[in-house]
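Input.
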Amino acid sequence: MKRIVFPLLTALICLNFAGCDREGFTHEGYTEPNLEGALPSTFSVAEGKMVYFSKGNLQYTTQGTHQTQDSTAAYGTFRFAEHQYDYLGEANAQVSATNEGWIDLLCWGSSGWQVEPWSEKDGNYDIESLCGDEAYADWGVYNAISNGGNLSGMWRTLTQDEWDYLVNRRAASIVDGVDSARYAEATVCGTAGLILFPDSFVRPDGIAPITGINGNNFTISFSNNVYSADEWALMEKAGAVFLPAAGFRGGTWLSTIGEGGSYWAATCNADRQAYALLFIDGLVNASAFGNYEKDRGYGRSVRLVKDVRR
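Output.
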């Protein structure tokens, strides 16, 4: 699918491609803080480094056009889901270059820079990172998100080490007697998934004590904590993030929809196997990766973040 070239849509690309620090990304008309599409709470992802999460999983359709970071406009539209617990499920089985619907299970690095968002490739393509010189392979770096500021270069994908720090090593609030409460499995509006607690969190009045905090190895369950829409609104206002168990796809084949979550990291290992945060009922793994390179060709969820600038 060809691209349309627009003259100088961006003011400049990146002054600092080193590692995964996107603070060098700028764009004409983009002045911090621009938090459109961001949730208000902050999360540490490394010592001295904090992020905001987007308000929902990333979704894509082939319809429309959008601006990209290399001064082109590409066919298609990216947006964030309306609610944190929203996912598209069976709609992903229709993925193709001609599908006019929305999808939200995307192959690794399928920003449209080298690999298209509707890709059904086997993962054997020449991208080794979503950072550094290959940062354009990151959906949030390369593309404007229509309800997330609508400018390219505003968002990014967490690295594997950042997911691990966020889930396993971060210092956070004491919640219901648990020190450094970082996550808990739950069901929100009928959707199973994983709650992430911000660095500073107080359980809202009217919400039952939260169980299974920081649990793993089948000491936790999606049924531990069940929230209605009104109850989740209180949790969200207090800063909680929710990652729905949206499953994954291999081509047009879908698996674990509503039973497991699978969220890409920006990182590959030495064998170019891409990492992801994975969770099922009872287990959470922030350092998972496929046992063969083609795993990058699976469609998984994407939840973007924005760096907190100091």
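Residues 1-31 have pLDDT under 50 and may be disordered.
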